[in-house]
Amino acid sequence: MVLNKPVKGDASYASRREIFGWAMFDFANQAYTLLIITVVFGELFTTVIVGDRGDGFRLANFLWSLALAISYLMVVVTAPLCGAVMDYRAEKKRFLLFSYLATVATTAMLYFVEPGYVVMGLILIVLSNYAYSMGESFIAAFLPELGPPEKLGKISGFGWSLGYIGGLFAAGFTLVVLGEATADNFERIRWVGPFAAGFFLITAIPTFLWLKERGTPQPSGVAYWRIAHQRVRSTMRELRYFKDLTVFLISLLFSMAGVYIIIAFAFIYGAQVIGWDENIRNIMFIIVQVTAAAGALGFGWLQDRLGAKHTYQMTLGLWVVAIIAIWATPEITAWLNARFGWQWQAQHVFLAVGCLAGLSLGSSQSASRALVGVFSPLEKSAEFFGFWGLANKLAGVLGIVMLGVLQTIIGLQASILLCVGLFVIAMLICAKVNERRGRDAAIAWENA
């Protein structure tokens, strides 16, 4: 692909309007993440559509984790192949459009999933989450073109922050207007699918109006699948030139396994372990969105000063503290009540824990995306972000399956400690990454 723009070391990049258009996709797709995966439909699926079949929701939790794992496995297989074609044919925007429309269509169809329609629910979650996850990789592939390496942390953080603001609007409206994810409220809450789809459909329009497709497609009569396989094989050989990117992706595999566990099970954990009521759930949602947006912006600013690697390591340390606090919430509540004579419930302490988790969530996702952008030559950005998507979703497969199986044996509360081990391993691996060397390798590749 021939780039119609300066290389990574030059100063002329995207306009503010184009960066805003790029970030609006984060704003739009958070409706899917929050309403379908994290806050509403996940709880609806496990507690109503499947329900407690005398096993304390363990079968429902396992089926939910299985559906997500299958969709992530599909991303693992296809993301690098699509990225290779997008770079070669300069079709990032076209692939993004296809994933966007597929996500909207399959999400809207969740309206038809009723209690007992387990197979239909599983199929639609697999398809919608696959399309959404592919779109994550496609939109991220534009990041290296938007600004110089020393500004990518701020740009990535702005996107994630805007995304959490979008999620605040989308899920806030849903929780207030549609109500609880309960059997008694099913006829109202089933509209969560069409609403999430409509929100995504409308608010992502600026992305397709303002985001530019840079580059000239290479002339080729070769089939897409052949281009994909040839390019991926070539890149696998070339990865020896990008040692730091390779090591970081291995670290990301472990850290994102922990993050995906939290995304998929946080509100299920609140309902089943903490036993929160609707008001506390709504407050928790607001807290997580606000603190995640603040974390993405704040750590994005910090990243451009301390470096992406150090910022990423700091966010993993935050996660370790947050997970221990999540696990120990009932014990912390009992200690506070005994020590100070309070009458708090676990759900009230869980709100404080949510602030720490929100900061960790926004900052870690933004830092990891920006670091891949720093390590990616522009002409390989889609392909490398395809590998980023592979690492992310393989992490989702491993993390969610491990948690799904583990919670059937020892319960959900104890199983959450799995995340601590995953984050610690990620920190140890990332210690071997040299950010300057990785950035120089990307620039040297372009100059060559």
Question: Could you characterize what this model shows?
Answer:
This protein has helices at 16-39, 41-50, 58-89, 92-108, 118-140, 152-177, 186-189, 192-203, 205-210, 224-238, 243-274, 278-306, 308-327, 329-340, 346-375, 381-410, 412-415, 418-430, 435-447. The protein is mainly α and 448 residues long. The protein has one domain (16-209, 230-447): Growth Hormone, Chain: A. α4 (92-108) packs antiparallel against α5 (118-140). The chain is globular, with a radius of gyration of 21 Å.
Q: Give the count of structural domains.
A: 1
What's the helix count?
A: 19
Q: Unreliable runs, pLDDT <50, ≥5 residues?
A: 1-11
Can you summarize the main beta sheet? Answer: none
Helix amount: over 70%
Rg result: 21 Å
**Strand and helix order:** HHHHHHHHHHHHHHHHHHH
User: How large a portion of the residues is in β-strands, by DSSP E?
Assistant: under 5%
Shape: globular
CATH homology superfamily name: MFS general substrate transporter like domains
Task: Write out key terms for the chains shown.
448 residues, mainly alpha, Growth Hormone, Chain: A, 19 helices, globular, disordered N terminus, transmembrane helix, membrane, ATG22/LtaA_families, transport
